[in-house]
Design a protein that fits this description.
This protein is an alpha+beta fold. Helix content is 45%, strand content 20%. Strand 3 and strand 4 form a beta hairpin. The longest helix has 22 residues. It is rod-shaped and about 125 Å long. The protein starts with a helix and ends with a strand.
């Protein structure tokens, strides 16, 4: 019983003993004493220093630790440093070394953490770094992690100033910030504001590179079903690009190159899978690229044989036009010109299909004379045209038809520009509200403007493509019907060369080489004769069947034959 009483007494007295060991007046009394004289101020500083080890709880410590700022003011007024240099600073360092164990960056306010750091030197900051590393092994709550990161961000200016002799200390704090940020960003489940905050906390190149690798896993997995995720990746890459300017270590070339490569890949995949990209989004993405990456984007943009069709073609052409202007503004003038030329040629057949442009048009010039204008697709990526006066005399044939990227409508010439020194006068034509208008600036008086309407639609061969086509190569024979209505017996020879079909129409009185051909891999072949001075082009449009060819003959400036030519396969 006696021992039990002693234990109970100890439990009651122990707190008093602990408090009694702290041989200090109340904080306010110390301030009052310190203000009386320089000697009294020195005594207060010494009393605090002697009692640091007895400050055994955070509440007691913080009460006396909070006096340092006011003691420093008193020291300045009394010129204490002249007799006892850095007395308050040394006290603060001793106190903060003892009190650091109670500092919790996951809970304490930024003001409190900054106050602690104010009294630390480089060595103490190194110990604080170890404390925070330990806390990160324990803390998992996202809000607490954000609190730690915000506190580190708040003290970094002081850390940089105080740790110049130990560069690993500020680098270590930034590494912790960046590691936390990448860990949070990997979760990919946060508001735009949170997302922007965490990206702003990436302070070193290695962490930024690590997050780019994370994004690339999603970027290279973009497809038809998840193409909308591309918007998220573009926004992240743009934020990361801006963050590179705020990194404390120099941004290596490979980091910027990686950002550019990822941005290009995202844009190309979104376009390939026909995801809608706003003009503002596209502009921001392209503007973030270096000149080299803009050139790379343009080259990869032009690497495809055809452009998207259907409802996405308008968006694709809009983006392409923007890329033409932006690449020139970036200094890639040649790439801009190449892209404009490529876009005009590739978009022409796509728009022709969508506008149902193929066919024959009856036009009239200002003097009332009649003309025939013919527009046809020669292959998947090539549009051709012909213009003739009434009576069948061909006036001009055009094998280079492009969409007018800078305006509207189409521009046509006999061949590609700058091939040789022969004359190559262009025309412009536009089909709106059922009216075809042809502008021929090199035409004679009264022939510069021709207008009229469509009088014949050509058979849409592309709509008859099949998944498992018959073999196209071979020799076919039968009666061939022409637009003039004069049939003749002949043969059509079809062969494949370099991915396209070539052919020949052969008869007793006529031989025509067809050296412009479609791919012929889907049961449809379209073969057209080349450019011959003084004559128009001839075209065969056919479906390959088990029997042979169901074909129509089209002649530039004359239109399509009204009767189908059914040609029997006689040899493979």
């Amino acid at each position: 019983m006696k021992n039990l009483k002693h234990l109970l007494l100890l439990c009651v007295v122990a707190p008093s003993l602990a408090l009694a060991a702290l041989n200090l007046p109340a904080p306010q009394d110390l301030l009052t004493k310190a203000a009386t004289s320089r000697t009294a101020l020195r005594e207060v500083i010494m009393d605090l220093d002697l009692n640091i080890s007895e400050m055994r709880d955070a509440v007691t410590f913080d009460k006396y630790f909070a006096l340092l700022g006011q003691l420093q003011t008193q020291a300045t007024k009394s010129n204490l440093d002249q007799y006892y240099p850095n007395a308050v600073e040394q006290l603060g360092l001793h106190m903060v070394t003892n009190g650091m164990r109670w500092l919790d960056l996951s809970k304490d306010s930024s003001e409190k953490v900054q106050y602690y750091v104010t009294w630390m030197d480089a060595d103490a900051l190194g110990r604080l770094l170890s404390v925070v590393e330990y806390q990160l092994d324990v803390v998992k709550d996202p809000a607490a992690l954000q609190k730690i990161t915000a506190n580190i961000d708040a003290i970094l200016p002081l850390v940089d100033k105080k740790s110049s002799s130990l560069p690993y200390v500020p680098a270590g704090f930034r590494r912790l910030q960046s590691d936390i940020a990448v860990t949070m960003l990997k979760q990919n489940q946060m508001s735009p504001e949170q997302n922007q905050f965490w990206i702003s906390q990436i302070k070193i190149s290695s962490s930024l590179s690590e997050y780019i690798d994370v994004l690339n896993q999603g970027i290279y997995a973009l497809g038809t079903k998840n193409k909308a995720d591309g918007h998220f990746y573009l926004s992240q890459l743009l934020l990361l690009n801006k963050q590179t300017t705020k990194l404390t270590d120099s941004s290596p070339a490979w980091l910027l190159a990686g950002l550019g490569d990822s941005t290009i890949e995202t844009l190309l995949r979104m376009v390939r899978f026909e995801e809608n990209i706003s003009a503002e989004e596209f502009t921001a993405a392209v503007n973030s690229l270096s000149l080299r990456h803009v050139q790379s984007l343009v080259q990869q943009w032009m690497a495809q044989d055809t452009i998207p069709s259907g409802t996405y073609s308008a968006k694709y052409i809009e983006l392409s036009r923007m890329l033409v202007d932006m690449s020139r503004a970036k200094g890639a003038a040649k790439d801009s010109d190449d892209l404009a030329k490529w876009l005009g040629q590739k978009s022409a057949p796509v728009l022709a299909k969508e506008q149902n442009l193929e066919g024959e048009y009856a036009l009239t010039d200002k003097k009332g004379r009649s003309w025939k204008f013919t527009v046809a697709v020669a292959r998947e990526n090539m549009l051709i045209a012909a213009l003739s006066m009434q009576g069948g005399v061909v006036y001009k044939a055009f094998f280079n038809v492009a969409y007018n990227v800078k305006g509207s409508g189409f521009v046509a010439s006999q061949r590609d520009q700058d091939v040789d020194q022969d004359q190559n006068p262009p025309i412009k034509f536009d089909y709106k509200n059922g009216v075809m208008t042809v502008q021929d600036p090199f035409g004679r008086d009264g022939m510069t403007t021709l207008t009229g309407k469509k009088v014949q639609n050509f058979t849409n061969m592309w709509g008859t493509a099949v998944a498992n086509p018959e073999y196209a190569e071979g020799i076919y024979e039968g009666t061939i019907y022409t637009p003039q209505g004069k049939p003749f017996f002949g043969r059509v020879i079809v062969t494949a060369f370099n991915g396209y079909t070539l052919g020949r129409i052969d008869s007793k009185n006529l031989t025509v080489d067809l050296n412009i051909g479609s791919k012929g891999t889907d049961g449809v072949i379209i073969m057209t004769s080349g450019r011959n001075i003084g004559s128009s082009w001839v075209q065969i449009r056919a479906n390959v069947t088990a029997y042979g060819l169901d074909a129509y003959i089209v002649v530039g400036g004359q239109g399509q034959a009204k009767t189908m030519s059914k040609l029997k396969r006689v040899s493979k």
